[in-house]
Amino acid sequence: MPAVQIAGMMPAPLSRTRLGWLAALLALIVLAGASWLGHRHALARSFEELSHRGQNTLNLAESTIQGQLERFERLPELLADHRAIRSLLLAPRDPDLIMAANTYLHDVATLLGASDAYVMYRDGETLAASNFDKPYSFIGGNFAFRPYFSDAMAEGHGRFYALGTTSNQRGYYFGAAIDVAGQRLGVMVIKIDVDDLERAWASEDLRIIVTDPEDIIFLSNRPDWLFHAFGALTPDRLARSMETRRYADATLGEIDFQTRSDRAGFRLLSGHGRDAVASEYLVVQSFMPQAGWTVQVLLPTRAARMQAAGFVALALLAAGSLALIALILWQRRRQLALRLEMEQAAKDDLERRVIARTTELRAANAALQGEVSERRAAEAELRKTQTELVQAGKLAALGQMSAALSHEFNQPLGAARNYAENAQLLLAQDRQTAAQENISRILNMIDRLSRISRHLRNFARKPNQQLREVALADAVQEAQELLGWRLRKTGVTLEVDLGPPGLQVIAGPVRLQQVLVNLLSNAIDAVEAGEMRALQLTASAEAGRVRVTLRDHGPGVPEALQPRIFDPFFSTKEVGKGLGLGLSISYNILRDFGGTLSVRNHPQGGAEFTLDLQAAAPTAEAAE
Ligand code: ADP
Questions:
Q1: What is the largest CA-CA distance in the chain?
Q2: What one-character-per-residue DSSP string does 60-78 give?
Q3: CA distance 251 to 249
Q4: Which of 125, 190, 462, 560 is deepest in the core (most CB within 10 A)?
Q5: 212, pLDDT greater than 90
Q6: H or E, element range at 227
Q7: Phi/psi at 118 (nearest 5 deg)?
Q8: Cα atoms in the 13 Å half-sphere on the side-chain side of 494
């Protein structure tokens, strides 16, 4: 199965990758195409702007030229009408007239701002000129070859632009025929300087050129291209220029630039090779028919091209950024989907585990419940057994008690019966004294029986009496008095040291005395047969408690018996001597007082019983 699965799965990611590559390639092609189109469009826009700017400049340049030319257009005609001029033409060799004309022309030229003003005779010779006193004076010069002269002679007006053959200065010439008495005797010429025109364009970063019909640059705001022609200067082009001597003796050069039109119809002028783009210009031009000039504005395309490239780069950057954002978004979405998938898987897993765990827990619960009911059954069984045991214990205690009591009672009863029978016999024999003795023995027995029953009554009585403050010394004193005869009889000494005087405890006075009597008589029992017949009774107070200790020098209480000696009817004494109730009663009395009774064997031998009692308030103060 896995092999089949792998075989089935393998092609899918591969084809997806290939699809991805194809999509990327397609996107790249589309991007390249879009960039190309964008660049074209941007370039066209930039060129349009440039062309607009060029057009403005062109209009301005054109109107400047136009204005300048128009200013002087009619002036030669006006000057020709002057008497000094007309007179001169009638007598061309008269020095006075020449001088008068010279002066007049000089004044007029200065006034008008013209470069030169001069009068030519009908054969082309210059008779008078404003520059008569200059080294390059035109006087005597024959400029019949100039079209402004020939045109004026033929049609009345002529205009021409050229490099002055004498002055070697560029100028625009206006010629007007001078007719005197119906005869055309000469031509009045005004030459204006064109340098001013150039000067107005000097600051521009673009090139403004004015070309003649031979495409030779005649005006330019950059001197490097002056008197240069676009394209090769063919012999016929040169011949045409030579004819009018437009450029006098200046050498003409060629500019190796090509003109072409781009797709959007813009005229572009560019050099060859590496510098083609660097020196590329957008050309805006206009032909001025009156002057015969073509004014051209050449705008460097470098900035426009850079702007277009910048636009494309910006667009590409934007597209790249968009693609990046899209990629990031896509990646995020993918990650989110993946995370959701993982979370879902984790959730499913958790749910599965919860279900499994729940099942396990349910099973465990069921098992536990089974165990609980088993425990309950066992507990019930135990309780039952316990009850049975308690019952059995009670019966045993009852049996023990019956045995002890029957011993205690039977013996004095048996003895009393014997003494009674003896007394009967002795009375029958009239032995009064002996009979009396027997009767007093019977009375003794009866006393003993009543003592036993009093003990039993004490044992059975409920501790309902009130507790109060009892002076410890008093209780000890009374117990000592009660047992004085036994101490004397057995020769046992009792040392009493009750510590700080005036110790008071919370107790019942009679019961406290009863406890002390019980403990003391047990102690006397323990030491009477021994060597060291001495007892010590001491007391101390501490932290609201009073401890009374009775130490004897008897055999002590075997460790194994210590837990049992406070049980009722526990006694190691022979029948008739102990009922096993003394300690049991004392223990319960102490508990009623809110105290305890305990036993231990003294390290140096003998038993030591300790009563722990609540101290009464004044005692606590005394203790402090
Ligand atoms: P009884 O004195 O009638 O036997 P008690 O309850 O007073 O009953 O005492 C129980 C037992 O505790 C005694 O039989 C004895 O074995 C033991 N006992 C009591 N006091 C002492 C003591 N001072 N020294 C040794 N054993 C003692």
A1: 235
A2: HHHHHHHHHHHHHHTHHHH
A3: 6
A4: 190
A5: no
A6: none
A7: -150, 165
A8: 26
Q: Which domains does the chain have, with CATH numbers?
A: 74-195 (3.30.450.20), 336-462 (no CATH), 464-616 (3.30.565.10)
Per-residue pLDDT of 38-47, as tens digits, reads: 888 888 888 9
CA distances from 491 to 484, 534, 604 (A): 10, 9, 22
Sheet containing 157-163, strands listed edge to edge, beginning at the edge strand earlier in sequence: 126-129, 116-121, 183-193, 170-180, 157-163
Specify whether the CB–CB gap between 490 and 524 falls below 8 A. yes
8 Å CB contact between 157 and 175: yes
Min mean pLDDT across 209-223, 444-458, 584-598 is at 444-458
Q: What is the DSSP code string of 117-186?
A: EEEEETTSBEEEETTTTSTT--TT-B-TTSHHHHHHHHHSEEEEEEE-TTT--EEEEEEEEEEETTEEEE
495 DSSP assignment? E
Q: How many whole angstroms separate alpha carbon 335 and alpha carbon 331?
A: 6
User: Which of 519, 535, 571, 587 should be mutated for ligand 1, with most atoms under 8 A from CB?
Assistant: 571
pLDDT band per the 50, 70, 90 thresholds, residue 511: confident
Index of the ligand 1 atom closest to the CA of residue 580: 8
Spacing, Cα 578 to ligand 1 middle (Å): 8
How far apart CA 575 and CA 89 sit, in angstroms, is: 198
